[in-house]
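Archive entry. Fields below.
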Amino acid sequence: MTFEAPTKDMLFNIEHLSGLEELHTLPEYADVEMEDIAAVLTEFGRFCAEEIAPLNASGDHNPSTCEKGRVTMADGFHEAYQKFVEMQWQSLPHPTEFGGQGLPRSVGAAATEILNAANMSFALCPLLTDGAVEALLTAGTDEIKNTYLANLITGKWTGTMNLTEPQAGSDLALLRSRAERADDGSYHISGTKIFITYGEHDMAENTIHLVLARTPDAPAGVKGISLFLVPKYLVNPDGTPGTRNDITCQSIEHKLGIKASPTTVLEFSNAKGFLIGEENAGLNYMFRMMNAARYAVGLQGVAIGERAHQQALAFAQERVQSRPVDGTSRDAVTIINHPDVRRLLMRMRAVTEGGRAMATFTAGWQDLAHLAPTANARARATRISEFMTPLVKGFCTETAVETASNGVQVHGGMGFIEETGAAQHYRDARILPIYEGTTAIQANDLIGRKTLRDGGETARELAEMIVETEQALQEKSDTTRAIAARLGRAREDFLATVDYMLATAPANPNAAFGAGVPYLMLTGSLCAGWQLARSALIATDALETGEDTEFMQRKIETANFYAHHVLNETATLRDRIIHGADSLLNATL
Amino acid sequence: MTFEAPTKDMLFNIEHLSGLEELHTLPEYADVEMEDIAAVLTEFGRFCAEEIAPLNASGDHNPSTCEKGRVTMADGFHEAYQKFVEMQWQSLPHPTEFGGQGLPRSVGAAATEILNAANMSFALCPLLTDGAVEALLTAGTDEIKNTYLANLITGKWTGTMNLTEPQAGSDLALLRSRAERADDGSYHISGTKIFITYGEHDMAENTIHLVLARTPDAPAGVKGISLFLVPKYLVNPDGTPGTRNDITCQSIEHKLGIKASPTTVLEFSNAKGFLIGEENAGLNYMFRMMNAARYAVGLQGVAIGERAHQQALAFAQERVQSRPVDGTSRDAVTIINHPDVRRLLMRMRAVTEGGRAMATFTAGWQDLAHLAPTANARARATRISEFMTPLVKGFCTETAVETASNGVQVHGGMGFIEETGAAQHYRDARILPIYEGTTAIQANDLIGRKTLRDGGETARELAEMIVETEQALQEKSDTTRAIAARLGRAREDFLATVDYMLATAPANPNAAFGAGVPYLMLTGSLCAGWQLARSALIATDALETGEDTEFMQRKIETANFYAHHVLNETATLRDRIIHGADSLLNATL
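PREDICTED_STRUCTURE:
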């Protein structure tokens, strides 16, 4: 089926939710105009719709294969990737200093979403490369940066993250891979890594593996983990790929979804590697890379929601079945006229647009965290953007699974037939709440590092910002006032659960963390609804000036639906969090 | 992975929730003892665990195939089916008059669940045969019954339901298949039927198709549909299969799940068929068959929830990962010690046991609907059991999808790898809220036929019964009092939405039916929680006598968890139902 990038909604969010006015005061973004952003995203949307999206179903039906350590990519992936590189799409969000285009993160986020909506299996390769770039920018020496960054930023070389081992998934303390120092300052890396996305493939001339391993004298646990760069081909002095390193792809996994993306088992046998940053500080660097990747996985959730919604909407507009319940026709009508199909479609749209709005809002704070002129402003932006990361990852991926499932439901029996395509989204989406940290891991982060560590300060600061939005909503229209009332109730639910976490976690951590996922979903639901409420404010103003009436009307409708059908989940979640611990913890499993 | 039938929970439900005392007063069930039921279910559980369950994964990896109109079943299915027939398992719930074992429906339901938990693809064949038996018992002539019933009840022959056509899924008014009268009183049936489960296979010597079609002079719409029996092989006077009828299997579908179950496209070309009941009354008979099938699909939901829960629990007890958040160990522990894994497992258990309890309760009323001594008692039991049917179908299948998804989540990254098996449940479960009527179709039934038609009488009668349970809960313990409080709140939410439906549906059907699925989920959640609350009452009494302490303690825990984590969803659902119509209906899609 055809795919159309939701550029209009993205541009609205970038202009109105990402704090663009403030970003324009920064020298880095002073010259970035909305027209330029629109041109870039429109062109990228066209490219993805024409070149990448058509490979989504075919790559699922005939996935990538592995034989004798060589991975052959699904048909068309190789050619499409060359075009992707030629057209310099990889460089979009990266710094101009190393050949990037230096666009705001909200624009990079929109591009990531578009690529993933077109083809999640394909998009994983550039996504991992982005993560490697982030890690090298953070902790690489000048030599490392000069040797690797330019080719990663063009996409000529690709990157991977090598964390997981058979016994070490969520728990990196259990890592066993070893790194022995060599005389020349490099290291010999040995060990087995599993679940390595694009660990081996034929699309690029070199692959740069970032690998966690332990030096012989490293302390036990996570404080003894170091980060190494281990290239598939060692790089010659002239910058070209040389000797093949001793890294073997042993197999690729037979997965539920994202089948065209090769998920490899890699064996490192005294492979030559280079330390990134300091020994035993690997986890810190990996966390930077992982935070970027977690945010990106949240975008994948929005992306698959968008794609599933487009497909279900198109089907509902064509499929004729049953007379309408209101008796307005004696003949069968298209199923979009049936109120439950409408309900499913509106819910898909609301959580998808809500997730996108929340992600765009977060991207603005990420930029300020790096670029704001004062240390105070940077610190505040860091706190806020880091608070938002587990919400974007957790909420947008949990809702992605729900949205993909609702997309199957809209199709009825046809949704269960693989050729229809709805089932692929349902399968693909299922990895999202798992990889780069399960939703429970995100919730642990939200409670521990983001709520308890600053005594709830950031949480309450966000609540204050929400109050401001509520006040503005009171001034506009009956609809925005109705949204304000529901936003206020959800905010109160949120503050009650923040108090609960602060009071409970120290003495009864199991009670607090057992309510972690509900707390994450409550907070995510609130923040997504808040950003949609902000959208409704902007759209109400725009309606008065007659600007783009149809689009603006729909933004208000989405926010209003969200307020009445999604945001009210906070009541149940609050009850579960605050009154659910005993029945959860005292049961015999 | 191994599977163990949950016979203990089933026997508890049959003894305490299915109204067994009243059933014992009926001559049909006067001699049915719990020990006999226990013996039957234990033996059937053993058979399914040993012979049927091992074929579940292999049938998924190497599904049934179709070549030139012949379907070859997945490896092992043929042999297992012969054993199933030899051991007379098919006859369990059917009347003794035609060779059945005449056990209460609650026992038949338990057997259906066990078989489906072992292997849903396999179980679909007997399930469809049960439906055909139901239809023939309802509307077949003596000649039809004598010719076909005995062989269907032994399982020597299998049955199918042929409703769907490419243009007619949920909407049977759009049916086009034709039935021309022949001189000998039979009919020539022609048309294309799709999504026909086990429409062609090699496990039985004959297949009896029940087919909806129109006679030439039939009125348009659903009032012109007749039901025909169309055997794959015409039956000789001596009862053996004779000439092959003109029915061709054109292909089987490539599906998301239940892959070993052949879903066929059947072409009927002047095939010889026999009218069942009256011309143009086919839909009524089909509805009987469909109601039985809908209830059975609800049991499939419970079944897959049970299987997914067993698998996730076993994984969580073995997988070691991360230190506990409460600091009780400095080493990594099995993940069952992590509170969010506990939360996922408890939710899986609660909705599965809740669904099973509700289904068993319903089975008791189904028996009374047929067998109660007075017309009044039969009418009341009919009303109650028919009110429950869309709840069992809708609630237990929606929660099955959620439970299977949670099962994947418990497995983390391993859950996304097909070899682990958790993903199969996630794929298999997805058909359940679709076939035999989507959840929205169930909700239409719940609103239209079950709530509005009697002006809310049955709904309020159930609420009165729930009040009685609340009163009993008040007398027992702190835990049961806490359950009572939450059950009462959910019951009030239910009654408010019943009032809303009665007030809204006549003037604004789109508002009412647009809230249909939330109304179904609220009512289903309430009734499942109610039955668990009844279980907690019984278990509390049993604890005092020291009977089976561990099991009884767990029943109370399940009910308590359900009350604090599932039942509170009614608040959000009520809000959506009563305040959600405008934002739903006024949006531009």
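CURATOR_NOTE: Chain B has 20 helices and eleven strands.
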